[in-house]
Design goal:
Structural class: mainly alpha
Keywords: Membrane, Transmembrane, Transmembrane helix
GO biological process, one term: autophagy
Distance between the termini: 49 Å
Helix content: over 70%
Organism: Seriola lalandi dorsalis
Protein name: Vacuole membrane protein 1
């Protein structure tokens, strides 16, 4: 497998005449122009130029819709078969019969899996900034299941209402009946689906770099341009970040499948570079995606899941609350809301459908507002990113017209 990446030739440096023109080489002028264009695009954000940003966002949205419609029309046979399949499922869904119990079961599992896969894609795909849905959704979900398992003495939560609301099963708490592996098994499906979503979200950089390398055209992506510049200046790299990026690139290129697997199996903010590297060096799709899927959905996901479960196990949580109370002066005042929150969660586990107290704990209120702010920021970043993409289209069009003159 390693030969897939290593056998590809190193990229050639962009050739160009070195004759001096007005005291500057053509390569230097191009770099300055690109830097100027980039700064101009980055200034196009909602809080600086709201009207133009929204206008460009709408125009870019229309262009994307047109492109997607054209691509769907090119694959109209597949689209037609998909619509026929959806029609068959729709008929089976609306027709009464003994098969309804299986249809409802499949519907519930499909929606549950699609929900976590979608959150995984949002966490990984970027669109200007990542919405880290592990910290916002999956981590709290695993933590709530862990706390409920220790409180209930069982993971046999009745369905419904779980997973919408966790309620302890009837029969009382059985001390010592909960193990680490039983909690891991309870949340394995959603954790693996979220990990699979993050693996799918890594595909755009791979396909972009692969298409740019095969076509020989300049890529419409700044990350790829930075990647090529990094390769050209590899020998003189001194700073830690550049050396770390080069380390990821060399590992993926030389080791192949197992290098990708190693990068995907640990929390790695530079993994986007691995996707670009694999696409640039024409690593086969299944080598890249297979290693990424195994690393993110199985190895990395179990590490993260194990960490959350251990952190929120009963005795560690109690020790953390006690430790907060031991802080001089401010400890007791901070400890009180944490204790109230944990007590409220325990009460909810034993009373299905109970009304929330009037004096809602401020911790839950703060968490809800943090989630809302992060989601709003994510949406704003998408608007900014699409507006900047349209601005780049205009810049490329302007440069093309200048060349033809």
């Amino acid at each position: 497998m390693a030969a897939n990446g290593a056998s590809c030739e190193q990229p050639q440096k962009r050739a160009g005449p070195k004759d001096k023109q007005n005291g500057k080489s053509p390569d230097s002028s191009i770099r300055e122009r690109r830097q100027k264009d980039k700064e101009e695009r980055l200034s196009l954000v909602l809080w600086r130029r709201p009207v133009i940003t929204l206008h460009y966002f709408l125009l870019e949205t229309l262009i994307k819709l047109k492109e997607w419609t054209f691509k769907l029309w090119q694959r109209r046979v597949i689209v037609f078969l998909f619509l026929v399949l959806c029609s068959v499922f729709s008929i089976a869904y609306s027709t009464e019969g003994a098969h309804q119990q299986y249809v409802q079961y499949l519907e519930k599992k499909f929606l549950w899996c699609a929900y976590w896969v979608g959150l995984g894609i949002l966490s990984s795909v970027g669109l200007g900034t990542g919405l880290h849905t592990f910290l916002l959704y999956l981590g709290p979900h695993i933590a709530s299941v862990t706390l409920a398992a220790y409180e209930c003495g069982s993971t046999d939560f009745p369905e419904p209402p779980y997973p919408d609301q966790i309620v302890c099963p009837q029969g009382g708490v059985v001390e010592g009946s909960i193990s680490l592996f039983s909690i891991m098994s309870k949340v394995r499906l959603e954790a693996c689906m979220w990990g699979a979503g993050t693996a799918i979200g890594e595909l755009p950089p791979y396909f972009m770099a692969r298409a740019a390398r095969q076509s020989g055209a300049d890529p419409d992506d700044e990350d790829y341009e930075e990647f090529e510049e990094m390769l050209e200046q590899a020998e003189g790299a001194q700073d830690f970040v550049t050396r770390a990026k080069l380390g990821v690139q060399h590992m993926v290129q030389k080791v192949g499948f197992f290098g990708i697997l190693a990068c995907a199996s640990i929390p790695n903010p530079l993994f986007d570079l691995a996707g670009i590297t694999c696409g640039h060096f024409l690593v086969p799709f299944w080598t890249f995606f297979g290693a990424t899927l195994i690393g993110k959905a199985i190895i990395k996901m179990h590490i993260q899941k194990l960490f959350v479960i251990i952190t929120f196990s009963k005795h560690i949580v109690e020790q953390m609350v006690s430790l907060i109370g031991s802080v001089p002066k401010v400890g007791p005042s901070i400890q009180k809301p944490f204790s109230q929150y944990l007590e409220a969660q325990r009460n909810k586990l034993h009373h299905a459908g109970g009304s929330a107290p009037a004096d809602e704990n401020w911790l839950s209120w703060v968490f809800e507002k943090v989630v809302l702010v992060m989601v709003c920021y994510f949406v704003i970043s998408i608007v900014n990113s699409m507006a900047q993409s349209y601005a780049k289209r205009l810049q490329q069009q302007r440069h093309s017209e200048e060349k033809t003159k």
